[in-house]
Amino acid sequence: MKPRWGHVAAVVLGVSLAGVGCAPPAVAPPAIREAEAYSAKAARAGLTIAADAYVDPDKSKAVFGVEMARKGLLAVNLIFNNTGPKKFFVYTNQITFKDANGQSRPRLEATHVAAAVEGRGLAEGLGTASVGVGMVGLESRSSPSAVQRYLNVSLAGRVLAPQTRAHGFVFFGLDKDRLVTGQVLVPVHDTADDRILVFEISIP
Predict the structure, then answer these.
(1) Residue 118 near residue 112 (C-beta atoms within 8 A)
(2) What tens digit of pLDDT does each residue of 144-160 get?
């Protein structure tokens, strides 16, 4: 059976935010290849996960309209290909980026991404363990449409059925040095064997 492509997107439920300032540019659909075609990938138990980091300025502008790294953001498109008979669940909220200095950075919510792209001074230190502390007022000023742009392309927690493909972006904050070398850690639940697999994917 040929694997099916599934677009992974989050849905806004009951969001009521007051928009101010300039909205970020529209987000274009990214080019997707087979997970096995990427150099940055990891495979276990019939599941391959590739990480396509948008660190090149032209590549970033083609999808997001801006250089995400200049905004203090690392955008990574994760591509999944489940060719085996097992079913997996992706723990999206637990995906992290560990940079070359060993610092772990959590996945950012779409509200944080929209705020950083709009240039509200959230670039430096956005991805540290304290992300979100004191940021509620800032992030809530992004309009629903601005947040929706990033929700539409973001990876949502989901089940990967056998013979299924999927993809979606995860975003991380960069430090003041804009260090983009490291590993994306993706925890996945192998439902057949009831175990957690952590895929470690080196980028760029």
Answers:
(1) no
(2) 777 888 888 999 878 99
